Prior knowledge:
Elements: H1 2-13, H2 22-33, H3 37-62, H4 66-75, H5 80-109
Helix pairs in contact: 1-2, 1-3, 2-3, 2-5, 3-5
Amino acid sequence: MLLLLILIIAFALQFFLPWWIVAPVSFGLAAWLGRKGWSSFGAGFLGIGLGWLALSAFIHFRTEGILTNKVIQLFGLPNPVLLLLITTLIGGLVGGLSAWAGYCCRRLIF
């Protein structure tokens, strides 16, 4: 339940707000619905990571790799798949750590 809420709400809000909106969304939802620390981290990691992977893959295929190829040349990466995996990892870590922090704050307060 937490994973789906994080995925849907963060994905929708990213179209209107800055990218970092995923952190407060993960934090707030995990503070509200998180049951355990690791499960909150996992829900945040997978929710944001999968959302970013889907969006970056959509952009890659929609633009026929033009943007992705320019970015991999800029960073000196060997192929676009690695860029998509790095994007997923960064988004997942932001979401997972934010969700874990939200869970820990709720435990600290209550």
